[in-house]
Amino acid sequence: MNLSFIIPIYNGGKFIENLGSNIKNIHQAIDDVEFIIVNDGSTDDTSEKLHRFLNDHPEISARCRLIECENGGVSRARNQALDQAVGRYVMFMDHDDNVDAVKLGGLFNSLCVQDADILHFNCRYPVSGHSQTVDTNRFMVDFPFVSYVWSYIYRRSLIENIGLRFNENMKYLEDGLFVLAYLFQTDKIMVSDEQVYDYVDNPDSAMRAQRSDAQNKKFLDDVSSAVKGYTELVESRSNSPVYSRLKEIRDSFLFIYIVNMLKLNLGKKEFFSRLQNVGYDFKMANYPSKFNNRLPVRMLCGLFRSKPLLNLTLQTGAFNLLRKFV
């Protein structure tokens, strides 16, 4: 099996027709592909529509495994699929997004020929010849870190060699920790600026939906866990020639954490307690980076380096004046 295509789905009944079109196109474009669809305890008509689609398309049903499970979140769904995957490579897709199957098929053939450890597509920087192969250190330094798990194709044996799985305790920002931990295992990376994957900005998604107070707390807790996770990963590579770049990546998520705490108007006590909990030293020494050096980001980083100014910002609500810029 060349490729395991993993698709978690929760209450996605209205997207099944479009998902089916994507699956049919991918099936035609890539030889020897399996689809692992995980219905994560949907309460709508997702299961019924999935079974109908598979019954209507026996040629795809033969290449598809449908896992029905209790709702446990996208990380658990992906992990269950990884446990059953047998492909040489693995790719993840969200049920409400789209894939250009023709471009994917061409790049996947090149990936197999190059025998690279990972393919990164949708690169936001121009790539010579639209695709090239680089070593990991050059990739980390020359290209922006993209934390979306769907923007890569992974060699499954490397995932299994280190027992890599998604953190099932995190609902938000779990992708990036998986991606960075995987990148540490690679030697040869294929990069392409071909726009293979079309992320659909679904207002009902976990990242876009209006959050309750409890969900806002969960979001902040998960960003805190992400900052700690990145710190642990980065410090494990303290002797790496790209250590400074890795610290930039970590600080970019620290930046996200502070911005979101200010947006949620946390009280001063909780705000500084959370900063202490992630070990923040009020230096923000490694951010902004060359990949995000906009004036508002530079201004905010200056603010974040000053505890007295942060204190004043919390007291006056002055951050609201900057909200439209971030």
UniProtKB/TrEMBL annotation:
Domain (Glycosyltransferase 2-like) ranges: 4-145
Domain of life: Bacteria
GO molecular function, one term: hexosyltransferase activity
InterPro entries in alphabetical order: Glyco_trans_2-like (IPR001173), Nucleotide-diphossugar_trans (IPR029044)
Name used for this protein in its record: Glycosyltransferase 2-like domain-containing protein
Organism the protein comes from: Neisseria dumasiana
Organism placement in taxonomy: Bacteria, Pseudomonadati, Pseudomonadota, Betaproteobacteria, Neisseriales
